[in-house]
Amino acid sequence: MESKKELPKFAVLQLSGCSGCEVSLLNSDEWINNFNLVYMPLVVTSNKIPEDVEVLLVSGGVRTDEDIHNLRKGASRSKKVIAVGTCALSGGVAQIRETHQARDTYLLSSHRLRLPDMLPRAFPIDRFVNVDLYLPGCPPTPELFMTALTEGKNAKIASIVCQECGRQKLQDMRPTSITGMRSGVVLPDICLVNQGYVCVGTSTRGGCGALCTRPGHACVGCRGPANPYLNKEPKFVLDNLRRVFSRMTDIPEEEINEALESPWLSLFLDQFTDYTQDESLPMRTKEKMI
Amino acid sequence: MTTITYPLSRIEGHARVVIDIHDDEVFRADFQAMEMRGFSYYVQGVPAEQITVIVPRICGVCSTAHQVASVKALEDTFGVTPPPLAEEIREVLLLGQLIQNQATSLFIFTMPDRVNASSLFEISDKPGDKERQFSLAQMALRIRKIGTDLISLAGGQFIHPIKTVIGGVTSGIPRQKADVMIKTIDELLPVANEMVDIYWQMSMEMGDRIGSWGDDEPTYYLASTEANNFRLNSKSLRLMSPEGKECQNFDPHEFESYLQIEDSDYSYAGISSFQGQIMRANSLARINLTTSFGTPMADNYLKRFVETFGRPAHAIMFFDLCRGIELVYALEKARLLLEDDLEHGETEVAYTLRDGVGYGLVEAPRGPLIHHYEVENGLIKNADFIIPTVHNMLAIRRALMVVAKRYVSADGISSELGRAVGRVVRAFDPCIACATK
Ligand code: SF4
Ligand code: SF4
Question: Across the interface, which of B9, B11, B171 has its CB nearest the CB of A216?
Fold first, then answer.
């Protein structure tokens, strides 16, 4: 335990998110032996990030003026910043629909007694600070956290979810309509697309171990678009999905299009949308992606 | 006027306590949620079936409870009854969540307070006790991991789980995996007992040291577990009066007649009450409302608790002890359920979408959680989340007032106040992400 003090300093800054990323990190407890945890309010009483932090993990999106302040301060004291989770990468689930009603409520409430001001939307963190490594996932698995911390840019990650899924794609099983979640039975070992589910594993970055698809739930794409679609408009990812469905199924095009516009997919597939619309944002290259 | 602000760590989410003092007198002690999530707005207009993937993201600590409540609300709307096997698997899932949560609250959040340490990893109550320090943190994390492993087993993944779907669960639990889990529980159940005993002991010593168990006036207690059946996949709510009489029993769809929920003017979180009266939910409420767990070790602890502190028990720090009892119960019960065949048989039934209104109730670690949806043209028109932490807001505020008064006097503000504030808030194990709209 004495040697702890000499280990590299490690800090975890949580902005506006759900704590899921932190809870996941807690399960990859190997870091406890490799790092000296100096800041992580969820588990340690510590009111500020000290100087000379080796690695700063940031989870959650930038939603309040306080978030901006904490993020800038934290990053300035750290050698390396890793953005973890959909929220830090895109603002997160808040982007599903920032309704006027929601915004009004925020604006009203933030003027209440001594509370931080809400920004007009939730921003990704690299709009404000330089990010060295991106770890997408909602949340990233404990294994992915370890990979990011130990291997960093040298990590080898499965290119798409299908690579890790283990379900078989069949030639002669062609559904004619979308199953939704309605069928009542998921057949084991057979690709979910063959069964008519809107599974987007074919275009989603791997590395999660196909957590959802193996027990029978369609992948909703929480790891974000695979490398070919980084920094591209969502259209590219959607076009690829359309191709997959027309190759493997006989589902009418309109039905597929409608399904692909689902909020639960846009949440994750549009993770990089900002990056095609805002020139001032840095490019997220595949080398920086875990 | 002096205002003291205490930022809070070792709780879920961003919150702080603000105390106003004027001439040695405490004016107000507010517990402020500092963030706002906004889910009741985001989900408006979302296709009903998709809400079950979106709402777990309200909170990564309670995602399991939100997911199951969400699925149950839609099952209620669509008029589907999941097969018994699915109900049992959901119970395993919720037990996993209880283990994970209570282990986190007990060991990571509150154990450091018992010995004035800043984190579990730095607990050094006795000089030279390196062996035990190391093993404490390791043991705590191993017990907590049983919870997350159970959630993964029954839910697919341990944060934002996916296996619970409208009509049932996507797949069963293979025998071989259940057996591995049983083996782990058998190995760690005695460790959990030991940890709970250590925790109990540390708490007694702390009580002696500070001369208080966090005394506060009696309140109402709210839980949805049954007196002799501690089912977390629950059906109705029960309310106990401050004198210890069970005075109300109601279904989730009647909640508005019993619970008043309003916005507060000092926090992003709402507050609720029983007809204007202060309530408490979470572990102490459940223990006060439980006659028997039906598992031997937990029943032993329950007996010891009731014999020592009475029923209903009211002091704030009892919340923490009760979490220990529940941790032991959840381990015992999960083990029992895993002995059943959870692999073969019908896991889900088909359903048809229809419009309407539905309510989904589960007993989350922090108390009864209700999701209430209105579906129109297949889309969510309105969604209401009745959050357990919100039921505790008035109680937290009053308890903070009690400690503030205790530590502020003509001689000044005691340095113990900051620690006391942390202990009180953590006893309620509030969840800020959930508690805001
Ligand atoms: S990325 Fe997902 S798990 Fe992480 S904070 Fe955001 S909602 Fe929670
Ligand atoms: S299968 Fe898809 S949705 Fe599930 S964890 Fe992996 S990337 Fe995320």
Answer: B171
pLDDT higher than 60, residue A98: no
Mean pLDDT of chain B: 91
Domain ranges of chain B: 2-435
**Residue A107 scores a pLDDT above 90:** no
Give the global pTM: 0.92
Helix axes B296-309, B318-339, angle to 10 degrees: 160
Distance A143 CA to ligand 2 centre (A): 14
**What percentage of chain B carries pLDDT values higher than 70?**
97
Chain segment B175-216, per-residue pLDDT in tens: 999 999 999 999 999 999 999 999 999 999 998 988 888 778
Cβ atoms of A222 and A265 closer than 8 Å = no
Give the up-direction half-sphere exposure of residue B1: CA atoms within 13 A in the CB hemisphere: 7
List, as one string, the DSSP characters of A69-106: HHHHHHHHTEEEEEEEHHHHHH-GGGGS---HHHHHHH
Instruction: Tell me the torsion sign for CA atoms B189, B191, B194, B199.
Output: negative
B176: part of which helix (H) or strand (E)?
Answer: helix B175-210
- Is the CB of residue B147 less than 8 Å from the CB of residue B101? yes
Distance from CA of A117 to the nearest CA of B (A): 9
Q: Pocket around ligand 1: residues whose beta carbon is below 6 Å from it?
A: A 17-18, 20-21, 59-60, 85-87, 92-93, 138-139; B 57, 60, 159
The helix/strand/coil state of B372 is: strand
Chain centre distance of CA B192 = 19
State which fold the A2-156 domain adopts: Rossmann fold (3.40.50)
CA of A57 to the centre of ligand 1 (A): 13
Domain ranges in chain A? 2-156, 162-276
What backbone phi and psi angles, to 5 degrees, belong to B266? -125, 5
| Contact indicator for B159, A59 with CB cutoff of 8 Å | no
Q: Which ligand is nearest to the CA of B39?
A: 1
Quickly name the fold that domain B2-435 has. Cytochrome-c3 Hydrogenase; chain B (1.10.645)
Give A93's contacts in chain B (Cβ within 8 Å).
39, 42, 54, 57
Phi and psi angles of residue B178, each rounded to the nearest 5 degrees, phi first: -60, -40
Work out which ligand 1 atom sits closest to the CA atom of A137.
1
